[in-house]
Design goal:
The chain is of the alpha+beta class and 658 residues long. It has 29 helices and 17 strands.
Length: 658
Amino acid sequence: MSLPPGFLDELRTRLTLSEVVGRKVMWDQRKSNRAKGDYWAPCPFHQEKSASFHVDDRKGFYYCFGCQAKGDAIGFVRETENVGFMEAVEILAGEAGMQMPARDPRAKEKADRHTQLIEVMEAAVAFFRLQLSRGVAAEARAYLDERGLGPQARETFEIGFAPDGWQNLWDHLTGKGIAPDLIMGAGLAKASQRGSKPYDVFRNRIMFPIRDGRGRAIAFGGRAMDPEDKAKYLNSPETEIFDKGRNLYNLGPARAAAAKGRPLIVAEGYMDVIALSEGGFDAAVAPLGTAVTERQLQTLWQVADEPVVALDGDRAGVRAAYRVIDLALPLLTAGKSLRFALMPEGKDPDDLLRAEGPEAVGRVIEAAMPMVDLLWQRETEGKVFDSPERRAGLDKALAEAVSLIPDPGLKRHYEDAVRNLTWEMTRAQRRKGREAAGQGGGFGNRPWRSRGAQAPAQPSAETKASLLVTREDAELHLREAVILAALVTTPEVADTFEAALEAMPCADPVHARLRDAILTADPLTSEAVRARAEAAVGAEALESLLSARHLAVVPCLRRPGDAELARVTVTEELAKLTAALGRREAESEAVEDLDAHPDEVVTYRLRQASEEMARAQRAVQEDDIEYDVGDNGARIDRGERNAFAALMDTIRFDKTRR
């Protein structure tokens, strides 16, 4: 309908915005200036402690500097009461003492019928509540007592009982002069297929009235007392006043509790909501016999930014949570999401409350997981990602899910989160694989290990005491330093080497922290990576690494930002590092052979090799490495070359003797 000119202006004149909003908030007396019509309060649309919600009576508008909610008196009523425009105007007109303009005859007829249906529902509520106190409901009362729903809970939630029989409610309502078409229009009775009187929809059931956000009775939910009944729970059919996909059980009281800072909890059914409310979690709601719908999600987000979906701790509960993810992802916006609290195995919120009390439920609610974690669990649960194909499949599934998010900023954060989770999983699986192979912190099954090769033998005590191991460790340390320095100074190439970087041993804790800083930096810019690296190892340690003499000769470090040069350098150093690890295995085997065949000459040659390695070690420690240039232009550590040559001569000499 259209409103006459000037009606809304008159309405706004009679009511100040602060009067309308003041019923829902507590004004901050220190910040507010009543004389100027300037009011401040914690925002009723999102949970906060500071007063960032501003009302300007002179302009007639409100604005929240936290969540950016804004509007006038009509918009405020629409958002807080979950009603349409005309209903909001009607509410405000009633408060202002204004008569709503006359509607066209058909609109008035519809409004009258709507009101009549509500009145029929209220009459049914009264009837069912009366029946619960009679002898016919003794079994129902015993069941409620067993479930911990005493007289106080029954009174608060207006629980009733529908007696067994076909026309109990029908006869009662028609006896009060209520028209049959209104009884059936309210969903309380059905027409008989046999030509007899219509019969009651609810029979021999505990009755739970369902009210809309304004507290009007619009439907019922009934719990069967007969264990053989086909439907354990039965809801009213959809009617002119009831849309099960839009409404939520206990919405009005839950909204009031959430406005006071209580967590908004979405449970599975009536009994859970009542149990939670009785246990102190009074901002609890439930969908009405169906899975959560898009409209219900939007209603939930009008009440709280991050409702907690509390589900039973069984496979059905987990599957229900997974379905909510697909519904919610396309609707997510910045600041609006869901968290998921899964009850312990085999329990619902009611069970947990009765078994362990409100404290146990509070812990589960407080530990509710973000939706991105549940998405990760759904895509990885019970699966093993031990091959590139499987990991690619996981990447594809996660990318498809995240692509549903319409908000670009939020989508980017989800992409970052799943990337980090994937990285952590990959590292954990590789670590587990190395441990299973008895390889400790090395590269594990990297390409340098030949097919079918056994893990290298543990060195003898004499070998451990020699400089062989020390020299090998020094070489690894040097290679790692070059790689890390190159990626810090030219981080844009780091993506290319992510897998190899993850597997790099890094026995030095400083190197390990620096490696992790590069892998987790976002974005991969010089500023971001350097800031992350300084936070990980300290500015002094980072500068010491980058300015070391043995790194100063590396071309890509003299020309930071040259991506191609950095890429070539890192590729070469990784190849040398892989070769060094392969050589470590060969050396271990050689030492084992020497231990089995002691000989003075062999021992003498081994001592020569050790001395060469000792000299190379001192060169590393003194930043005094001498380099030769190979045929292909690559730099070759002269001490390393001589030491390795000496060792190979010793091995060849020993094999010739045998």
